[in-house]
Design goal:
Number of helices: 15
Strand order of the largest sheet: 2-1-3
CATH superfamily of the largest domain: Bordetella uptake gene, domain 1
Number of domains: 2
Shape: globular
CATH topology of the largest domain: D-Maltodextrin-Binding Protein, domain 2
Distance between the termini: 79 Å
Order of helices and strands: HEHEHEHEEHEHEHEHHEHHEHHEHH
Structural class: alpha/beta
Strand content: 5-15%
Helix content: 40-55%
Length: 343
């Protein structure tokens, strides 16, 4: 009996060591929050990443996706910053990257500091475009500039591209748009366009070429494009001028061009995944490494190609650098932003 007792004691350190060496994520579940209703491209991207990322994390945790729409993604971002524990188990899976504009103009509903989130990565950068119903008289930006009645564009909030891009065109080239806010998500805006209650929407080029109803719309010639962001024209929109080209055409002053640079910086952040402030460095490294491996996972890449999604990943370190840069703006730019965004 004594020999058995001492043998058991000898095994105890090995048992404790084995337990200590178990991966943190083993047996756990990572909750991925999405700031839109189901079916939006932000939601689809988050679910695709969640379906593949777990196998690249030691311990192979499960992933669940939770939709938390509201206030143009602000509800989800506030929850992550103020409510979620910084334990590496709650992440934003995909969110509109222009939320930093809310912070810059000092909106009272903002409970986050954009630069303090723990950035994991983004699967793509995201340049944007504006579509307009083809049966309207607004065939070019010049038509909008000279119209007696401005076209109505739908928006979810006030700092998404669906809202700030029309306002940017108003401020820089004098093209007036009437922004109708409060739509729950992009699909609701599209329905509003189909019903004829609004005529236009600004959002990513990727989404427009990535899914329905836009495939059907293109076949029917239901919409045309008025402008696009980006340093050069997208190959799929060869006849659509860039914002930079329009500013050149209408001789936008330097102050307007600086404003455009701040507003359009969101495109370089794409569809970011990130956690709350204070995630331990070792867990953040695990998540960043897993994200990077997911971006090169052959099955994941094949699925991205099959869905015709944009694919130009940004590292967590890159997102962190951009977030810090764009949230440090001089007072004159802040005041111009407030004017454009209606604060």
């Amino acid at each position: 009996m004594n020999r058995l007792f001492f043998a058991a004691l000898l095994l105890l350190p090995w048992s404790f060591d084995a337990h200590a060496q178990a991966p943190f994520y083993q047996g756990k579940t990572i909750r991925v929050i999405v700031g839109t209703p189901p079916g939006n491209l932000y939601d689809l991207w988050a679910r695709l990443i969640a379906a593949h990322m777990g196998k690249h994390i030691p311990g192979n945790p499960d992933f669940i996706v939770q939709n938390m729409p509201g206030a143009g993604h602000v509800v989800a971002a506030n929850h992550l910053y103020s409510v979620a524990k910084p334990d590496g188990l709650t992440l934003i899976g995909s969110i509109i990257p222009s939320l930093y504009l809310n912070q810059l103009v000092g909106r009272k509903e903002i409970q986050f500091d954009w630069a303090k989130f723990t950035w994991i990565g983004a699967p793509a950068r995201g340049e944007s475009q504006m579509y307009m119903r083809a049966d309207t008289p607004y065939k070019t930006i010049e038509d909008v500039r000279t119209a007696k009645e401005p076209p109505k564009c739908g928006a979810t909030g006030v700092t998404g591209p669906d809202s700030f891009l029309p306002k940017l065109l108003q401020d820089t080239v004098g093209a007036m748009f009437a922004i109708v806010t409060g739509y729950p998500g992009g699909a609701d805006i599209d329905l509003g366009v189909e019903r004829g209650e609004i005529q236009c929407r600004a959002f990513t080029i990727e989404a427009f070429f990535g899914r329905e109803p836009y495939h059907s719309w293109r076949k029917k010639g239901f919409v045309r494009h008025l402008f696009q962001t980006g340093e050069k024209r997208d190959a799929r929109l060869p006849d659509t001028p860039t914002v930079a080209e329009l500013m050149d055409q209408y001789k936008t002053p330097e102050a307007g061009r600086r404003l455009a640079k701040v507003l359009l910086a969101a495109g370089s952040m794409g569809r970011p995944m990130f956690g709350p402030p204070g995630v331990p460095a070792d867990r953040l490294k695990i998540l960043r490494d897993a994200f990077a491996r997911t971006m090169t996972d052959p099955q994941f890449v094949e699925e991205v190609k099959k869905r015709n999604y944009e694919f130009d990943p940004v590292s967590g370190e890159g997102l962190d650098r951009i977030a810090k840069e764009i949230t440090c703006q001089p007072p004159e730019i802040i005041e111009r932003l407030k004017k454009v965004l209606g604060n």
